[in-house]
Every structure is written in structure tokens, then in C-alpha cells.
């Protein structure tokens, strides 16, 4: 509590807790001299604030100051309340007084600073996470684009392969491990007089004319063992006539090494076989004629 001259007339025990001397010794001192004993600094914040607040001389005027007081090592919140009489608000007279409330807000400011640092750290983490998410999204978009391009390229490769297979002048057949047809190209289907879909799921043996019982089973067993030696066989067509073909097989194996079927390239050799048969018949006739002449 300050009198009209700005001198302390009453103080509480905080003066003693803060190491500023006794309550009795504080009486008669200016507030600045109590807190900053011997201070003559022209830029002292406390002296400037107290002088300015005391000189305001406005009825019930309130002034406030928050500063880090280097002399005390505390962050102070100072509130200055003028209580001069209403009939003469601009003149400090006997009986007028001022109330000064000084609060130590060091812990509060430390908490605020801590919150401020946490907020800054949170903002930094959010910014970092935002950048990371943006980079991740960019990578995902690029991966999606790459996958789309790869799928398009794979589809083009499949289309090109299908075109090649369907336009080749040889037959192509794929059989599973149970000797059922899983794929046949148009050339081989036309050779046998069927549509491709009519041959799917059929046993290959249904179209083979065995030269002797069990010959096809023996060839299949060789495929299971990895043998890819070409061989000649005759096939039964839909209209009943026979075609001779050369089969160039390629055994197929699963990742675990188990037999998974085979792929075969089928070449029509009927004209060659018929020519060889005709040649043998002619040679036989010549031998018979020669024997009769002799």
C-alpha cells in the first residue's frame, strides 16, 4: 500500500519470502527502492512503470506490467491501482493512496514457454508428417501409374503373343498333368476339324491313333521325366481322315519341381509321310518287276 507520495505504508510477508528485507524495513521506501535497492539505471523498467502509474492520477486508474526481473530472477506481474478521491481525480492529496499487487508468475511463464515450445514442436512434427504424407502420396501415385503402365504393357505383350500364336502356320497345344487339353490354337483346331473351344478339356488320347497299345502313355511318361525329344504320330480328324504330325514337346514343371503338363508345337507332315509311303510302294513294285524279269 502506497501513500500519496508513493511511499510504502504497508506490505505483506512476501517481501520477506523474496529476500527483500523485513516488512517493517519496507515502510517508508519507494517501491522501486525496495525491489531494486541502489539501482540508478536510467532504463530501469520498474522505476519507469511506477513513476508513470503514479503520475497518471486518474480516479481508480489501473496499470499493469509483466517483466522478467533480472535482479530478483523472477518473472513479475505488477498491477498498480490509484485510489485518489473522486472530487479531485487529478491531484494526489492527503488521504489518497495506491494499491500495488506484485505476483510471481515465473512458474506460469515457464509453463507458457513450455506450451509454446510444445506447440512449436507439434507444428514442426505436423509439417514434417505433412511432407512425409505428401511424399508417400506422390510415391503411391507414381506406383499406381507404373503399375498401370506395366499392366498395359503386359496386355500388349499378351495380345502380341496371342496374335503370334494364332497366326503361326503350326499347331500349338497345352496339356495339363492329367493329359487334358487346356489350350489349342486355331491352326490345330482347323487341322482337326473342330472349333478351339470344342477341344478344351478333352483327353489328348481321344485324337491320337496309336501305332500300338500303350505307345502314347509311354511318350507321356517320357515328358514327365523331362524328355523333350520330337516324335511323329497320327491324329484322327473329325471327319475320320488321318493326318500325320511331328510333335516338338516342352515339358512344364511347377515351382516345386512337380510335373505340370506340357506344351507341344504340331507340324503337319502328312504330305511328306504320304510321299514316303508312295516311294516305298514304288520301290516295292520295282523290286517285284525286277524279280519277274530275272
Task: Briefly summarize what is shown.
Helix content is 45%, strand content 23%.
Kindly describe this structure.
- The protein has 294 residues and is an alpha+beta fold.
- 45% of the residues lie in helices and 23% in strands.
- It contains nine helices and ten strands.
- The protein has helices spanning 14-17, 23-26, 31-35, 45-56, 106-167, 186-192, 196-199, 215-224, 270-293; strands at 2-3, 62-69, 74-83, 97-104, 171-175, 181-184, 208-209, 231-236, 242-253, 259-268.
- It has a six-stranded antiparallel β-sheet with strand order 6-5-10-9-8-7. A four-stranded antiparallel β-sheet has the order 1-4-3-2, with helices on both faces.
- A hairpin with a 5-residue loop joins β8 and β9 (242-253).
- The longest helix is centred in the middle third of the chain and has 62 residues, at 106-167.
- The mean pLDDT is 88.
Features of this protein?
single chain, 294 residues, alpha+beta, 6-stranded antiparallel sheet, 4-stranded antiparallel sheet, 9 helices, 45% helix
Amino acid at each position: 500500500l502506497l501513500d500519496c507520495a508513493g511511499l510504502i505504508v504497508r506490505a505483506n510477508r512476501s517481501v520477506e519470502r523474496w529476500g527483500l528485507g523485513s516488512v517493517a524495513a519496507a515502510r517508508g521506501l519507494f517501491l522501486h527502492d525496495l525491489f531494486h535497492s541502489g539501482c540508478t539505471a536510467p532504463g530501469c523498467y520498474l522505476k519507469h512503470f511506477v513513476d508513470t502509474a503514479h503520475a497518471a492520477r486518474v480516479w481508480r486508474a489501473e496499470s499493469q506490467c509483466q517483466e522478467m526481473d533480472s535482479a530478483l530472477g523472477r518473472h513479475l506481474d505488477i498491477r498498480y491501482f490509484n485510489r485518489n478521491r473522486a472530487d479531485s481525480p487529478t491531484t494526489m492529496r492527503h488521504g489518497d493512496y495506491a494499491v500495488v499487487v506484485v505476483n510471481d508468475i515465473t512458474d506460469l511463464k515457464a509453463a507458457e514457454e513450455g506450451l509454446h515450445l510444445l506447440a512449436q514442436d507439434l507444428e514442426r512434427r505436423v509439417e514434417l508428417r505433412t511432407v512425409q504424407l505428401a511424399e508417400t502420396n506422390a510415391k503411391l501415385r507414381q506406383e499406381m501409374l507404373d503399375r498401370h503402365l506395366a499392366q498395359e504393357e503386359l496386355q500388349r505383350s499378351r495380345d502380341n503373343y496371342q496374335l503370334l500364336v494364332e497366326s503361326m502356320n503350326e499347331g500349338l497345344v497345352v496339356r495339363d498333368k492329367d493329359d487334358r487339353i487346356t489350350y489349342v490354337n486355331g491352326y490345330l483346331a482347323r487341322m482337326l476339324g473342330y472349333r478351339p473351344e470344342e477341344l478344351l478339356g478333352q483327353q489328348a488320347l481321344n485324337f491320337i491313333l496309336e501305332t500300338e497299345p500303350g505307345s502314347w502313355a509311354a511318350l507321356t511318361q517320357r515328358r514327365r521325366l523331362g524328355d523333350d525329344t520330337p516324335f511323329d504320330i497320327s491324329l484322327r480328324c473329325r471327319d475320320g481322315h488321318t493326318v500325320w504330325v511331328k510333335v516338338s514337346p516342352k515339358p512344364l514343371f511347377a515351382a516345386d519341381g512337380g510335373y505340370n503338363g506340357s506344351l507341344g508345337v504340331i507340324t503337319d507332315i502328312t504330305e511328306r509321310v504320304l510321299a514316303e509311303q508312295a516311294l516305298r510302294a514304288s520301290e516295292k513294285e520295282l523290286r517285284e518287276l525286277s524279280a519277274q524279269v530275272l
